[in-house]
Amino acid sequence: MTEQHIPVLLNEMIDALAPRDGGIYLDGTFGRGGYSRAILRAADCRVWAIDRDPSAIEQAQKVDAEFPGRFTILCGKFGDMEDLLAGAGVDSLDGVVLDIGVSSPQIDTAERGFSFRMPGPLDMRMGNEGPTAADIVNSWGEDELARLIRDFGEEHRARQVARAIVRARDIEPIATTTQLADIVRSVVRKAKDGLDPATRTFQALRIQVNDELGQLDRALAAAERLLRPDGRLVVVAFHSLEDKRVKAFLSARSGAKGISRHLPGPAPDAPKPTFTLAKRGTIKPSEAEMRANPRCRSSRLRVAVRTDAPAWAADRPKSVRGKRA
Fold it and tell me: Which residues are listed for S-adenosyl-L-methionine binding in this entry (predicted)?
């Protein structure tokens, strides 16, 4: 049985997005619809939502029934928001909100294979397409696995984990979450803070399977192109890999990156800032919210406001597998 889904930083998200009557907003990561419902209740506006998870698409029917004529779900990846919206006849927005990462219902459904706490197939796909986590652990070489677990999991013992995976799969294929978790625990000690040794390896695989960082990079650039002047971009991230990317993007696009009082201003031909930071730094959950929902502890919200400057050329995302050893 899954736990009730609790939207993270919900009130803070609404304050940051500031929905207004007549506005058009995108919930790029629908999940179970907590953000979409809150936006629709906050103003007499129109909300488009995106999700690749078939179970989320089913949940969206309830939101559509609750807010007839004001809500539409699009099946796909949030990194493809520009193409998905164009296909629906939408070319500009007043706000974009992204809640990055895996949702609680996905984690709590054993057969989805996201959790090392419950036995299930080693899948981890948010949608139904592409290689599974089992495909990766059973086919990638030791160097590739070590690089993946180090870069996307920030696991200090990535090489030892990769070596243990290769040894184990030589005996039998790694097909379940419990198999992989036990392999990782055999070479990684439990942290002093109680973090399960398998946490970082599972995170790395999930990010790779779903191209989460590539999706985030593409979504940020697409939001820059879609947002009207004074439109708002709100991003909730749950770990440092995501938040660093959002911070770097907004720092560059707001002109804050690399600014020093000891150096001259930007070059005359430098692109103009496309965002202003509505708040420097991040907004974090309150103590009360963390007590009610421990999973929100690592969440961080960033918000920026679109200027009228032309969008910059998008940076090309890099993949772990494309790097040299």
Answer: 33-35, 51, 78, 99, 106
- The per-residue pLDDT for 265 is 55
CA dihedral over 293, 295, 296, 298, signed as positive or negative: positive
* Residues annotated in a binding site: 33-35, 51, 78, 99, 106
Give the 3-state secondary structure of residue 288. helix
- Cα separation, 20 vs 243, in Å, equals 27
> How do residues 64-88 score in pLDDT, each as one tens digit?
999 999 999 999 999 999 999 999 9
Those residues whose C-beta lies under 8 Å from the C-beta of residue 220, and which sit 6 or more positions away, are 233, 235, 245, 246, 249
CB 254 within 8 A of CB 273: yes
Mean pLDDT of the chain: 89
Q: Is the fold of 10-104+212-306 the same as that of 128-209?
A: no
Q: What residues form the annotated binding site for S-adenosyl-L-methionine? A: 33-35, 51, 78, 99, 106
SS3 167: helix
pTM above 0.85, yes or no: yes
Contact 71, 57 (CB under 8 A): no
Better-predicted residue by pLDDT, 54 or 249: 249
Q: How confident is the model at residue 296 (pLDDT cuts 50, 70, 90)?
A: confident
Pick the CATH number of 128-209 from 2.160.10.10, 1.10.8.60, 1.10.150.170, 1.10.287.690: 1.10.150.170
Domain ranges for the chain? 10-104+212-306, 128-209
Distance CA 7, CA 233 (A): 18
H or E stretch at 147:
helix 142-153
Q: Tokens 């996307």 identify what position?
A: 152
Residue 260 — left, alpha, or beta (φ > 0 → left; ψ -120 to 50 → alpha)?
beta
Taking the C-alpha atoms of residue 325 and residue 320, their distance in angstroms, rounded to an integer, is: 10
In the predicted model, what is the mean pLDDT of residues 107-123?
75
> Based on C-alpha coordinates, what's the Rg of the chain?
20
